[in-house]
Amino acid sequence: MSKTDVTVLGLGSMGHALAAAFLANGHRVTVWNRTPGKGDDLVAQGAIRAQGPKEAVQASPVVVACVLDYPTLHGVLDGSWDALAGRTLINLTNGTPAQARETAKLHDGEYVDGGIMAVPPMIGGPSAFVLYSGSRAAFERYEDILGELGATHFLGEDAGMAALIDLALLSGMYGMFGGVAHSVALAASGGLDPAEFTTSLLAPWLVAMTGVLNSITDDSPADMQVIAFGNIVAASNDQGVDPELLSHLTTPFRQMIGPDAAGLTLEEMLNR
Ligand code: NDP
After folding, report:
1. Given the CA of residue 75, which atom of ligand 1 is nearest to it?
2. Domain spanning 166-270, CATH architecture
């Protein structure tokens, strides 16, 4: 069976990885990037370089876009919306749910929005997954192709859902990264080597904690956690480590404790 032709708009780190995965899977891949040189290796492997976005869009029934952000995407497609009409636009550019819904309205054809939960070297590998929402018909028709990038999760016909859940997952990740930065600073204030601390203690601890995400307060009551949390803030102050980031966790901790804690400051919660 002949493979579906695919166009990839944007050959930054991620777009390049997407195009390479489609090429590796035997598709006729047309590519366009603002800076043409970024596609040289792909062209050497058989990709077709389009001279502009319009030519790129006209080359395939499926157009995968992955550029910096939505304003960039709209700039790239300005003048090509007519050519895109009737084709399937799969937009893997990171943005907000509102931007995804707005883009769906601009496109006269099937629109699927996506959130890539992977870094470029993971594309096509076993741990990559991508969230999708928008046209179910298009998603189902092209699910096999999308599966070449990573596992697929379809989240419904609201084009904004993939962006929402992408940002929810990124919130968990960036919250963890912020916590890691604070954790390392606190350990370093006691003289520990940051890299050694991270490898031997912090990483195993975080991995172990992912096992209890669904039961965060079952065995460790929230009231108890708030006291530990206050201790972190106090010790950070004592060690000269700015507690600013963790001070902002007061609100989620309040939510964890329940409605009777709403409106309380951290100090009031600790003294309840
Ligand atoms: P890069 O910075 O590597 O690439 C950005 C892309 O946008 C390039 O193709 C660049 O073209 C293009 N671009 C930027 N400004 C313009 C412009 N004014 N006009 C035309 N094209 C422009 O980013 P990534 O490839 O890493 O990311 C692309 C998308 O993928 C982002 O939305 C990102 O959030 C998402 N993503 C990235 C991940 C990652 O780990 N890299 C992970 C998950 C999602 P040029 O080469 O000419 O500059």
Report:
1. 19
2. Orthogonal Bundle (1.10)
Cα–Cα distances in angstroms (integers) from residue 211 to residues 107, 204, 208, 215, in the given order: 42, 12, 6, 9
Residue closest via CA to ligand 1's atom 12 equals 67
DSSP for 39-87 reads GHHHHHTTPEEPSSHHHHHHT-SEEEE--S-HHHHHHHHTTTHHHHTTS
Residues 86 and 84: their CA atoms lie apart, in Å, by 6
**How far is Cα 244 from Cα 247, in angstroms, rounded to an integer?**
5
Residue-wise pLDDT for 34-59, tens only, equals 998 999 999 999 999 999 999 999 99
Taking the domains of the chain in order of start, what are their residue ranges? 6-157, 166-270
CB atoms within 10 A of CB 161: 21
Under CATH, which number does the domain 6-157 receive? 3.40.50.720
- From first CA to last CA, the distance across the chain in angstroms is 69
Encode pLDDT of 111-156 as tens digits: 999 999 999 999 999 999 999 999 999 999 999 999 999 999 999 9
The pTM of this model reads: 0.90
Contact call for residues 59 and 7 (beta carbons, < 8 A): yes
Per-residue model confidence (pLDDT) at position 256: 63
Residue that has been written with the tokens 């102050």 in this structure: 237
* Selection from 122, 150, 154, 128 nearest residue 141 by Cα: 154
Distance CA 42, CA 64 (A): 16
117 lines ligand 1 (CB under 6 A): no
Regarding the beta carbon of 68 and ligand 1, being less than 6 Å apart is answered yes
CA of 226 to the centre of ligand 1 (A): 40
Q: Is the CB of 173 under 6 A from ligand 1?
A: no
